[in-house]
Each structure stands twice: as structure tokens, then as C-alpha cells.
Amino acid sequence: MQSYRLTIPGASRPVEPASVRDATSQHADLFIETDADRSRAAASLAERDALFFQALAQQQIKLNDDQVQAVRHGDGPLLTIAGAGSGKTTTLACRAAYLMQVARVSPRHLLLVTFSRKAADEMKQRLAEIPGVPLRSAQSVEARTFHSFCLQLLRRSGMRQAVLGDDGQQRITIKRLLRESGTSFDFEPESLLALLSSYKCRMLTANDLPEASPAEREIKRVLLRYEQWKQDGGMIDFDDLLLLTYRKLSAEPEMLTALQERFRYIMVDEFQDTNTVQYEIVRLIAGASRNLMVVGDDDQTIYSFNGASSEAILSFDKVYPDAKVVALRVNYRSSAEIVGLGNAVIRGNKHRRPKTLTVPTAEQGQAAGSDDAVDAAIGTAGKPMFARPATAEEEAALITASIRKLIEPGGYSYGDIAVLYRSAGSGRATIEHLLQAGIPIEEHGDLLSFYESPLIRPVMAHLKLSLHHRDKQAIEMMLPTLYVNRESAMKWIREKDAQQAKKWPLIHLTSLPSLQQFQKDAVLERLRLIKAAAAQKPAIAIRKIRDAFFDKFAETNRGGTPHKELMKELLDELESSAGRFETVESFVAFAEDMAKRQAEAKGDVKPASGEGSNDAGRVQVMTIHRSKGLEFPAVFVIGASEGIMPHRSAIQPQQPKQTSSQEEIERDKEEALEEERRLMYVAVTRARERLYVSSPAFYHGQKAELSRFLAEAGGGRQTVSAAGSTAGVRQRQR
């Protein structure tokens, strides 16, 4: 039997099949291949394969059977489900090396798409460390973020617009457009930019924004002006890079064909985080060869607010029916007990690919497939510890005491420890206790303290005005709550106060010509509320401010129903914090002190105390969302109570759209709850050796049940208290 195959003219030996050929050839002719030729090619391939894995083993890179399957995959689509800590980076690097060394694919035909520059650089570094891969070849692999890849493509095709890479410039521009619009709505620039980004991620534009309410119409008007401002200035933002690339590839078949010929093998890391437009770009480029490898974990899809969806992974083998599916099921990161808890937590989700993570056997070793080496003694420790403090304040005290115990001589360093929380409100108490205790922290978030956050600032401004009547900054901060334009109102107040100073400068607003009588009445009522606050307990003063106008104002001006519960949580947390103080003066002083300490902590760039020092580094403090992709020897997961995790926005009914059917409403609720469960899963699987989970029994003055995710997982937990929370901490040899 004879078959046809391709060869390069003048070549001394036949070119191998598509899966093992050097794809640099651009011209070919036909010749007759015999069975003997085919046998020799297969033997050569098998020999290279054996030598490849022998070389890996000699360098102590031991791959398990699942990883080997993914590495050996040749042509066609491949879905690699990479469970937490399962060595996906090692697998990706080894597959790229396999394609180059065994399948003889030119490195310039490989494209690796990641979500961060750090991940792209790490991939090239890992690749260069694999035996037989020259540094030049590793550097020739195209490893880029989505945005970097799109920018390079557009630049080469003649795009000259400047890229708005400065978030600050975008915020300043939106703020200016809001000011020029004369709106009385108190929109935060960050919120409007995030809204626009979410639309572009779904391949929509500002023209698609809703106009059902006055606030929505104002938002759309401002964002359309923002888009026009960019166009007039010859600028685009990061989201535009994706949209423009998709449109160009869809409209210019010559460009798409050139890309398809260049990139024969495509690998996408963190596939669960891709949004619609990113996925469509990848599908276009992979359309000809269909050699698309995606690596991700549907159980770690936690960025739905950025357009990510677990459906991309769940439906991959439906979009590509011939796709090979490989699951990396060995967790090289965490102790067996921590892995077991993670399995028990995520098992409650219905819409997922069933899988159970295990830990390495003695034969598999500890560090071979891991993204980071794991302490060899991990198996002797690592049982998750559980605490049920009464309140968030007691929880914070417990965490602080536990961290102090962990860093005793022979124990951990500050930099080994992370504190994870669901949202800004649920982390407030612990951050404050750590700061007051003098424990160095590195907070992964914006530069604002809880009391300086956009929602809280106007309330604090009212309290400050009750103490300092002429505080112009506080007046400016609270003006939008009176539905007046901040800039024009402040200009009027300053001019009138310069002519005739008043004890309460806010009173000048009652003479502003553009104000209607009901607005002037509102100013007088607000003044009465502010004056009364000075003599009240701060928690009572805040409650009166909320009841009088602020809750309604916040819901109307800061996103409406979808964010209602998130706003309520922050305001409830403000009340809880204020409840510890007897006077407004002492509470305001405390809030200002915390803001100062937080700013100092964020600006503290002093080096660690010294190599080997137990207090080296800083405790990492962050939301669970920010922790994905990271790992730490010791992790504290706080706020594991109903209403916090799962968040009450997921468990309390939201106002449905009028067009929604009951089935759609129930599906939305289920999806929200499953994402909360994935958040818990991500949180517990960040821990390598020590995991502490705490669940306050009361939250914002209300009884809070144990998180259903822990209740479902059940059994095997050790309970700790303030006195015994650190019992059994394993001493680490440094």
C-alpha cells in the first residue's frame, strides 16, 4: 500500500507528518512514501520521545501520567483541566519543549497567550531551563499577554493611536467630563470605566449602554463623550486593543491567513479567565490548524464581573468535538488535608467538570510537577484549623494573636503568611488590628483606606462637618448628596463666604439662584441633621444619616440594584466600626489614624530585617479575587459565615428584570452561588502547609450561621480559640 506525503525540494530525507514536521517549510512537492519510510519515521519519533523524557528525569523534572498525556499531544484541540497546584506551568513549558525537540516544530510557530507579563516571562524562563532547549529557541517562542499581542499586531498593521495605559489619566478625564456635564449624580470614574470595560469584553460598545433611567442616560452620555475624546485625541484604551484586533482579523482575511500560517500551535493559559472577545480572537487564529491547547480550571472561574465564564471550559469539547481532554489531578502545593477540604468544598457545585484532586505518591515525588518546591515534611502537618469567634473584632484579635505565634523563633516569617477575605468590608477589622499591633502588612488593593473609599467618604464628611463646621473639603465631599453640582456649588459658597463668613458656610447654598425651593429646604434639613450628630454616638449618627437620605442616594447614584447588597455591606460595616466609640470626635480621630497608618504601610518600602530573620517581609492582606494564582505557606481565610461567604448578594433575591422568566431567575441565583463556592475553593487552595478558617457567629449585629460551604464539606476540622489557636504549629527549620 502506498501513500502520498510532502517533502521539501532538495531535502536529503523525507519531512515527517504534520504533527512532527518542521513547519518552517513554505514550498513542497509530492512523492511516494513506502511503509518502510513510515516505519523509520515512527522509530525516529519514538527515539526522540524517549530521549526527551530521559533528559527531563535527569534534571529531576518528573511528570505524572496526566502531564505526560498533555505534553505528548500532537495536532488538534486539547483541553487541559489544571486543578489547583497541579503544575500547569511545568506542563505548558514541557509541551512547548516537546513540540520543538520531538515534533521538530520551529519555536517561531508557537504562540503562548497569558494574562500577565510576569507569567509570560516565567514561561520563557521555564522553557530555557528544560534540557536541550537553547536560550535562543526559548526566546523565539511568542509568549505574550492578550493585550501585548494585540498591540503588536495592530502596530505592525499601521495603527498609530496612542494607548491610554495610565488609569489615572482615564479617571481624570471621566471626572472632567462629569464636571462639564453639570450632573448632580455622584458617579465614581472608576465605576463608569469598569462598566464600559465590561461591555467591551462582551464585544459591545458605549452605544449599547442602557437608557432606562436618568442615571443610566447620564452615564451613557458621559461615556459616549469619553469615547469621542479618545477618538479626537488619537487614543485607544486596553479594551479597544482587543475589539480592534477582532474586527481587523474578521475583516482582513489576508492578515488572518498570515497569522494562521505563522502560529501553528497555540496555547492559552488561565483559560477560565478569558472573556468573549479574547476567546474569539484565539479561535480565529487557531481556525486553520486547530492546534489549540487551552489550560485552565472551571473550579477557579471567579471573574464573571470581568466577562469570564466557566462555560468556555465546560463547552470546549462541544465547540471542538475531536478535542482531547486531560485533567491534571495531582496537587503538588498543599497538604493532603487541605486538598481534601478543597475537594469537599467544590464538590457542591453542579455545573463543573467532575474531578478529585490527590496529592503526590512517594514515587511521584514532591517538587517534580510543582510550580514551586514543597516542603518535604508537609505531610506531617497541614490539617485545616477552624475557629468560631463571636464577632469580626474578636476574629481580628484571634488572627493577630495567631500570626504573632506563627513567627516565633524557628517558625514562619511575616512574608510566609496571607490573610484572605471576601470583600473590603469583611477585611476591615483584621486590617485595623494588624496595623494597631504593629504587624507589617502589604495590602493588595487601591491606595484608599476603608474610611476613604468612595461610598464611605460622604458619610464621614457629614461627621467631620458636625465637628468642624467650616471644613471646606468635607463640604465639597457631601455636596453631591444634595443633588447639586459640586463645582458650581463650591464656587458659590467660597465667593459668598469671602464676602460674609458664616459659622456654617453650607448655609450660603440656600441663596444659590439655580436652586429650587425644595432643594433649599433640603439644605436646611441637612444642616439640622449635621448639627445634631455632634452630640450623638457615632453609630446612631450614621444610622440617622443613612435613614434620612444616604441609603437611597447611594442606590440611585452608585449602580442601583446589582450592587445594592455590596453597598449595604460597606455601610453596615461602617456602623459596626463606629459602634465601638462613644463620641463622633473619637471615631473620626480613629478613622483618620487608620487612614494614615494604612497609607504609611502602603508606602513602606524598607527592606526586610535580613535574610533568615523570622520577621522578614510583610503579611500579605488581600481579597480572595486578588489571591488567585498565588500560594503561601500559611493562609488565614476570614469571614467564612453566611452573608459574607457566600455573600448576601448571592443568597438574597435581587430585583429581577421584568422580562426574566422564573427559570432564568433561578439560574442566575444558582450561578451566583456557585461562583461564591468557587471563591471559597480558591481561598483554601492558596495554602501550602497551614490553613486557618474562621467564621464569626455574629456579623453586623445579626446572627451568622457557619458558611454552607464548610457545613457541606463537614467533618475533620479542629476547632481553635484565642487561647489555643496556635497549638501544634510546626516549627520550620531555616
Task: Report on the architecture of this protein.
The protein is α/β, with parallel strands linked by helices. The chain is 47% helix and 11% strand. It contains 28 helices and 19 strands. The strands form five sheets. It has a seven-stranded parallel sheet. Strands 5-4-8-9-3-10 form a six-stranded parallel sheet, sandwiched between helices. A two-stranded antiparallel sheet has the order 1-2. β17 and β18 form a beta hairpin. α16 crosses α17 (424-436) and α18 packs across α21 (517-533). It is globular. The protein starts with a strand and ends in a 14-residue tail after the last strand. The model is unreliable at 1-32, 366-380, 605-615 and 715-734 (pLDDT under 50).
Itemize the secondary structure elements and their pairings.
Layout (H helix, E strand, L loop, with lengths): L2 E5 L21 E5 L1 H24 L6 H8 L5 E5 L5 H14 L8 E5 L2 H12 L6 H6 L1 E4 H11 L5 E2 L3 H15 L7 H13 L12 H19 L2 E2 L1 H14 L1 H10 L2 E4 L7 H10 L6 E5 L14 H4 L1 H4 L4 E5 L7 H11 L38 E3 L4 H15 L10 E5 L2 H13 L4 E4 L12 H11 L4 H7 L7 H14 L17 H17 L4 H20 L6 H15 L5 H20 L15 E5 H4 L4 E6 L10 H4 L10 H23 L2 E8 L3 E2 L2 E2 L4 H6 L4 E3 L14
Parallel strand pairs: 3-9, 3-10, 4-5, 4-8, 6-7, 8-9, 11-16, 11-19, 12-14, 12-15, 13-14, 15-16
Antiparallel strand pairs: 1-2, 17-18
Helix pairs in contact: 2-3, 3-4, 6-10, 7-8, 7-9, 10-12, 15-27, 16-17, 17-23, 18-19, 18-21, 19-20, 22-23
Features:
single chain; 734 residues; alpha/beta; 19 strands; globular; disordered C terminus
